[in-house]
Design brief:
By secondary structure, the chain is an alpha+beta fold. The longest helix has 21 residues. It contains 5 helices and 5 strands; from the N terminus they run αβααββααββ. The structure holds adenosine-5'-diphosphate and magnesium ion.
């Protein structure tokens, strides 16, 4: 019991809080790319990110959402935008882009600059990694894809 409470407090300190502030945007088609991009920019602006970082965050969300529309057409997708607090007390933003499409069989290959299984430029995933502070890809063939990105205010 006491250990559970301690864990919960540690979780908050590590920045897991503010889940009630999470904003969910379903991805159903092309129009939702623009919507997710706008919402991410707006939340970043509200959290005090500068213009350049707002654009970086918006571009990253746009790329990941576009991938869902392009490659997870059979599945559903959702973008979740959540304000985060760093252990140091700093402000950040976390965005999770999830789908239950075909998944990525080789994540390392997908992260390579120029790799595309379609007719893209193959810059979306590596570009997103450069634009953000953190990026985690959880994906496997047939299991869908969940990509989490974070950026902290400087
Ligand atoms: N949500 C996704 N579901 C399935 N495959 C994906 C997804 N996102 C990316 N991929 C795979 O990763 C590859 C690289 O993605 P990306 O770097 O954005 O380049 P591009 O979109 O130009 O192909 C894609 O070609 C695709 O094979
Ligand atoms: Mg792409």
């Amino acid at each position: 019991m006491a250990a559970d409470t301690g864990g919960a407090v540690a979780g908050v300190a590590a920045g897991a809080a503010n889940d009630s502030d999470a904003e969910h945007i379903p991805i159903r088609g092309e129009d939702d790319i623009v919507l997710a991009r706008q919402r991410a920019r707006e939340t970043a602006r509200r959290l005090g990110f500068g213009m350049v970082d707002q654009s970086r965050i918006a571009t990253a969300v746009s790329e990941l959402t576009r991938n869902v529309v392009r490659y997870a057409t059979a599945g559903r997708g959702e973008v979740t935008i959540t304000p985060r607090t760093a252990p140091s007390g700093g402000t950040g933003i976390e965005i999770v882009v999830a789908d239950d499409g075909p998944g990525i069989s080789d994540v390392q290959q997908a992260m390579r600059e120029g790799y595309t299984s379609g007719s893209g430029l193959g810059m979306g995933l590596p570009g997103t990694k450069r634009l953000m502070d953190d990026m985690e890809i959880d994906s496997a063939q047939g299991r869908g894809t969940t990509i989490t990105i974070r950026k902290w205010r400087r």
